[in-house]
Specification:
InterPro entries: Kinase-like_dom_sf (IPR011009). It comes from Pseudonocardia alni (Amycolata alni). This is Protein kinase domain-containing protein. The chain is an alpha+beta fold. The chain has 3 domains: 3-161, Alpha-Beta Plaits (2-Layer Sandwich), CATH 3.30.70; 168-237, Phosphorylase Kinase, domain 1 (2-Layer Sandwich); 246-392, no CATH class. The chain is built from 14 helices and 15 strands. The protein has helices at 3-8, 11-15, 33-41, 54-61, 98-113, 132-140, 147-161, 204-216, 259-274, 317-320, 324-329, 349-352, 356-360, 367-382, and strands at residues 20-26, 45-51, 77-84, 126-128, 168-172, 181-188, 192-199, 228-229, 233-237, 246-249, 255-257, 277-279, 287-290, 294-297, 303-305. The strands form 5 sheets. The protein has a 5-stranded antiparallel sheet. It has a 4-stranded antiparallel sheet with strand order 2-3-1-4, sandwiched between helices. A hairpin with a 3-residue loop joins strand 13 (287-290) and strand 14. Helix 3 runs antiparallel to helix 5. The two termini are 41 Å apart.
Length: 397
């Protein structure tokens, strides 16, 4: 199947490649090809990696925009990473555009490859196709008539494995890139409106962690009820959100929380700690307050077990963050924000209104007023017009 045959094909044939993306690794990043592959694999399924010969380099170069000026030359195209996104059915509402997800993966991959390169020596390590049509043009430049046949089966299998098992009402997730899973409001024949979370094959470890958390911690009131689960999906009741836990919104999908909510989350983390576990990515955008079910923590993919003996509660990793050595040895941990002295943003003074000493002490009279004053001070500092305060910027590792 050639590019021209694909263009002339039926709409169903063109629809097959909606999630296709090709990442071009430049020769300056050739020694870091494995890092680039790992970066793309964080959010997309890898179909094939092709190191280019001289003739392919020339043809691929002709299909790419000229790289932006950088202090260090990027070099010629070196390799193609052929990948695929998990796409929702045509016509489904609430779907994040494939181009936006590819851009998010490219941004992560770019930073991953350059993370040990001094800023003044940065170069353009990777470029990405601008559309499925552009991806097909890059593959056509390989001069390999069998490549589309080789990847067609895996693409179709990905669509089958990641299809929602129940009728989709709309996709959920807001502006989240959805690197590990897609979430949808579905209609279940018994449970009615429910939320289904389907994990892609490359995120099977995240699925296992969340399933274990749901099964083992289901007695905790903050853990969503598990209605059903399949080989790569979880079904949860559809929880509404009254916003009762929020004092005010902040930039970056964060929000300042009521002190009693912070205390509840602190108790949740202590319950985890006593069971030899900690949690990362506990952020206001992962919280809802349902009118009937109360406070719920929606994403538990990063409930992890301590690799050894848990530290004292005051040094709990949910509060302190994970040690640098652990972060360096474990792949795929989330990029946290507001990590100055805490592991999760909900415990940062900008969110909780409590410094660490007050957070770990017993609640005192006047805590709500003191918390409110601290939050107002942070709100004033963070609410600068037209730019994001440095404390709210994600920290890459």
């Amino acid at each position: 199947m050639t590019l021209e045959e694909t263009r002339r094909g039926a709409p169903a044939a063109a629809d097959r490649w909606r999630g296709l993306a090709v990442f071009v690794v430049r020769s300056a990043a050739a020694p870091l090809l494995d890092e680039a592959v790992a970066g793309v694999a964080r959010g997309l399924e890898i179909l094939e990696v092709v190191v280019l010969d001289d003739a392919q380099v020339a043809r691929v170069r002709g299909t790419l925009p000229a790289p932006a000026s950088r202090p260090v030359p990027s070099g010629a195209p070196y390799a193609l990473i052929v990948a695929c996104d998990v796409v929702a059915p045509v016509g489904t509402s609430g779907v994040r555009a494939v181009a936006d997800r590819v851009a998010a993966v490219l941004d992560y991959t770019d930073k991953r490859v350059l993370r040990r390169v001094p800023p003044r020596e940065h170069y353009l390590p990777v470029q990405a196709s601008s559309s499925p049509e552009h991806a097909l043009a890059l593959l056509d430049a390989l001069g390999d008539p069998g490549i589309l046949h080789r990847i067609a089966g895996p693409v179709e299998d990905l669509g089958r494995r990641c299809a929602m098992p129940f009728p989709v009402v709309r996709m959920l997730g807001g502006t989240s890139p959805g690197f590990r899973a897609r979430v949808a409001l579905v209609h279940h024949p018994v449970h009615g409106p429910s939320v289904c979370k389907v994990f892609r094959p490359g995120a099977h470890e995240a699925y296992g962690r969340e399933l274990r958390a749901r099964l083992d911690l289901g007695d905790l009131p903050e853990v969503p009820e598990l209605l059903e689960h399949g080989p790569n999906w979880l079904l949860t009741p559809f929880y509404g959100d009254t916003g009762r836990h929020i004092v005010r919104r902040l930039p970056g999908e964060l929000a300042q929380l009521r002190p009693e909510v912070v205390r509840t989350l602190l108790r949740f983390c202590r319950d985890l700690h006593e069971r030899g576990r900690f949690v990362l990515d506990l952020s206001p955008h992962n919280l809802v307050w349902d009118e009937r079910a109360g406070l719920k923590v929606l994403d538990l993919e990063f409930v992890l077990e301590y690799p050894g003996e848990p530290p004292a509660w005051s040094d709990c990793w949910s509060l302190r963050g994970v040690p640098p050595a652990y972060r360096a040895s474990v792949e795929g941990l989330p990029d946290l924000v507001l990590t100055r002295g805490v592991g999760n943003s909900v415990f940062h003074p900008a969110i909780s209104g409590m410094r660490r000493a007050r957070l770990l002490a017993e609640p005192r009279r006047g805590e709500a007023a003191h918390s409110g004053a601290t939050q107002l001070a942070w709100f004033s500092a963070l609410g600068t017009v037209g730019r994001l305060h440095p404390a709210l910027r994600g920290k890459r590792h």
